[in-house]
Amino acid sequence: MSNLDIDWSAAWDLDPDVRFLNHGSFGACPRVVMEEQVRLRAELEREPVLFMARRLEGYLDEAREALANFVGADSSDLVFVPNASTGVNAVLRSLAFEAGDELLVTNHGYNACSNAARFVCERAGAAVTVADIPFPLQSEQQVLDAVLAKVTPRTRLLLIDHITSPTGLVLPIARIVRELRERGVETLVDGAHAPGMLELNIEAIGAAYYTGNCHKWLCTPKGSALLHVRKDLQESVRPTVISHGANSPRAGRSRFQVEFDWVGTDDPTAFLVIPTAIEFFNSLVDGGWPTIWDRHKCQALAARELLCDALDVPAPSPPEMIGALASVPLPPGDQGAPSGAWDVDPSQRVLFEMHAIEVPIMSWPAPPGRLLRVSAQLYNTMQPYRDLAQLLPLE
Question: Region 199-228: what's the mean pLDDT?
């Protein structure tokens, strides 16, 4: 049996009647990790004051240390946030943009984060400029060229995805960060999909700001993500909710961590089970995480080949730009512009309701253009991708 057809789905509680090819949207949490969260919630509710006021800080430090080791960071530079969108907002709303400043984004950016960029710029009289990265594309150099072509003396910050959400591209992020910094421009990396999808070394990337979800490819519960801020910039970055940490200085602890560690009463257990998720996957598969990263990539590429063959189109990007997501262009649709973020393409609805295949079809770059995106995760075998390919092309 091929490694790509080994079935690890028993570790999850996913509906066995649905061929779930959309891990990329919200992730899916394995049973072992959910059970540990239940245990921690029981401890919290047994004595809430003891847990929240006296134990939580130490628990957060333990989880932060495990996550920092996993993503290649110093734990003192890392804080928890509920999701990458919150991390992006915390950074953007901490910066003092001025009239005439430019905030550079790309046409592959995540809509929610692009909205945050527009909000802070409109408030300050600054401008959002867009680097148009082609897709399909033939090389990483095309990404860099598109970004650098839009840098001007007024560019204050680049907001860019590490792994693009609609097109599933792994961008050459370390090179982009380096080239921008040489031009005096800092970078905020939206790494929503990176932790757990591929080997990550945030310090080596060198971005001023890096945020990423744990609930996607690390498969932790919803509401767990990280924000990493370079030490020289931490004093100016504040959480989106200002709480007790704003006037509670602590010896040996930065305001950066004090403020982010407490933004009001909430359930912190999604953060606290991150070490459980890291260790669970490392022990689930022979070879641990490196084997998982390799399988992600091989399965995504194999699935993409099936889809491209069915559609009679060439691969839209080189293999080195694929992680665990792969998007392929579909024939144009007849649906107009989406009415909202959750507007579903009619073909996507048919695939789910008639064929029990959960897979996203996105309008990109604009109607009538469409992309179909598949995800690769351990609970996937190759058969559902074959089933999907047999249904193509979609009308």
Answer: 98
Final residue of a structural domain among 250, 277, 304: 277
Dihedral of alpha carbons 66, 72, 78, 80, sign: negative
Write the CATH number for 316: 3.90.1150.10
Among 277, 306, 323, residue at a domain's last position: 277
Nearest CA among 351, 182, 378 for reference residue 292: 378
CATH code for the domain of 105: 3.40.640.10
Note whether 379 and 12 are within 8 A (CB): yes
The residue segments making up the domain with residue 301 are 3-21+286-390
Question: What is the total residue count of the chain?
Answer: 395
DSSP string computed for 26-38: H----HHHHHHHH
How far is residue 54's CA from residue 48's CA, in Å, rounded to a whole number? 10
- Structure-block tokens of residue 286: 């022979």
The answer to whether position 131 is within a domain reads yes
Angle, nearest 10°, between helix axes 274-284 and 31-46?
A: 150
Confidence of residue 78 (pLDDT cuts 50, 70, 90): very high
pLDDT digits (tens, 9 = 90+) for 336-374: 555 566 678 999 999 999 999 999 999 999 889 999 999
* HSE-up of residue 9 (Cα within 13 Å, Cβ side): 19
| 184 pLDDT higher than 70 | yes
**Six-digit token pair at 136?**
């399909």
- Residue 260 sits in the same domain as residue 380: no
**Whether 197 and 258 share a structural domain:** yes
Q: How far, in Å, CA of 3 to CA of 264, rounded?
A: 45
Give the range among 32-46, 158-172, 334-348 with minimum mean pLDDT.
334-348
**Residue position matching structure tokens 């070490």:** 275
